[in-house]
């Protein structure tokens, strides 16, 4: 985007519920997205990868061990098995009925709740193209159209390039855990509307550099209101937050 560009993606709110309201309910479960809605979030971030059968599932880690009572790699199980695992008790036994949701289930819930989405694609290595094709196909079938904002993001350049290869219209966000000096060339080539950056690597100068390109600047993961205020003062548009109680002021 250049100096005359108008960003076609409008930021619904300065707070994006990260993996749903993941300080208040188990991350990336339907309960976490319902909780985000209940506390007043306007949009949510979540992570997507493929199960062994090719189903797109909403899950952060490549392995089941931290957030479910299963063990091993997500990609090694068909969804018929993944859906039998308890994805809530690790957080609190009251959530023991939570399952790993499919992307379709999450999209349908967000449409019902009128929430926007930031879909972060986290492919297993080597199946980037299959993952992107599946995500785009589920979006075609289950996303509710233009009513709510939809951003597709990834740390994987291959993923973003593949989304753009198959879709000229989806809004893209480039995730950077470290500052990547060629970010602008990459984002220009794909017409990314957003850059999503880990907050410790940001500075006022870097924020100015990104904002000069008229892109949204989103920063993760922020649960300290003092840090959030500093980022907003620099010009950051929104922060990914687990929605710890102190962050409610930004909802
Ligand atoms: O999209 C922001 C953030 O979710 C990226 O990191 O590891 O929490 O998915 P991670
Ligand atoms: Mg994520």
Q: How would you sum up this structure, described in words?
A:
This protein is an alpha/beta fold and 251 residues long. The chain contains eight helices and nine strands. The protein has an eight-stranded parallel β-barrel, surrounded by seven helices. Helix 4 crosses helix 5 (157-166). It is globular, with a radius of gyration of 17 Å. The two termini are 28 Å apart. Residues 45, 47, 120 line the site of magnesium ion (MG).
Annotation, overall tally of beta strands:
9
Unreliable spans? none
Rg to the nearest angstrom? Answer: 17 Å
- Oligomeric nature of the chains: single chain
Spatial separation of the terminal alpha carbons: 28 Å
Estimate the mean pLDDT confidence: 97
Residue share in helix: 25-40%
The ordered string of helix (H) and strand (E) elements is: EHEEHHEHEHEHEHEHE
**Content of β-strand:** 15-25%
| Structural class based on helices, strands and sheet pairing | alpha/beta
The description of the largest β-sheet is:
8 strands, parallel, barrel
Strand order of the largest sheet: 1-2-4-5-6-7-8-9
Shape: globular
- Which kinds of small molecule does this entry bind, naming each only once? SN-glycerol-3-phosphate, magnesium ion
**Count the helices. How many?**
8
Write the layout of secondary structure elements.
Blueprint: E1 15-18, H1 30-39, E2 43-50, E3 56-58, H2 79-82, H3 103-113, E4 116-121, H4 128-142, E5 150-154, H5 157-166, E6 171-176, H6 183-190, E7 194-198, H7 204-211, E8 216-220, H8 225-234, E9 238-241
Parallel strand pairs: 1-2, 1-9, 2-4, 4-5, 5-6, 6-7, 7-8, 8-9
Antiparallel strand pairs: 2-3
Bound molecules: SN-glycerol-3-phosphate and magnesium ion (MG).
């Amino acid at each position: 985007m250049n100096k005359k560009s108008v960003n076609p993606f409008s930021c619904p709110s300065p707070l994006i519920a990260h993996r749903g309201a993941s300080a208040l309910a188990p991350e990336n479960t339907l309960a976490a997205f319902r909780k985000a809605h209940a506390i007043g979030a306007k949009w949510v971030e979540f992570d997507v990868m493929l199960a062994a059968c090719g189903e797109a599932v909403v899950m952060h880690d490549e392995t089941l061990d931290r957030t479910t009572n299963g063990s091993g790699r997500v990609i090694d199980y068909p969804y018929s098995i993944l859906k039998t695992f308890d994805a809530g008790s690790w957080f609190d036994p009251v959530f023991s009925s939570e399952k790993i949701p499919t992307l379709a289930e999450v999209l349908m819930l967000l449409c019902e709740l009128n929430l926007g989405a930031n879909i972060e694609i986290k492919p297993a290595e080597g199946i980037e193209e299959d993952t992107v094709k599946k995500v785009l196909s589920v979006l075609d079938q289950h996303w509710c159209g233009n009513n709510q904002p939809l951003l597709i993001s990834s740390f994987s350049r291959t993923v973003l390039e593949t989304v753009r290869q198959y879709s000229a219209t989806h809004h893209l966000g480039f995730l950077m855990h470290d500052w990547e000096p060629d970010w602008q060339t990459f984002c220009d080539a794909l017409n990314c509307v957003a850059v999503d950056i880990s907050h410790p690597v940001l500075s006022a100068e870097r924020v100015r550099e990104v904002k000069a390109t008229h892109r949204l600047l989103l920063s993760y993961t922020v649960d300290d209101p003092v840090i959030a205020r500093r980022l907003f003062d620099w010009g950051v548009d929104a922060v990914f937050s687990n929605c710890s109680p102190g962050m409610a002021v930004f909802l």
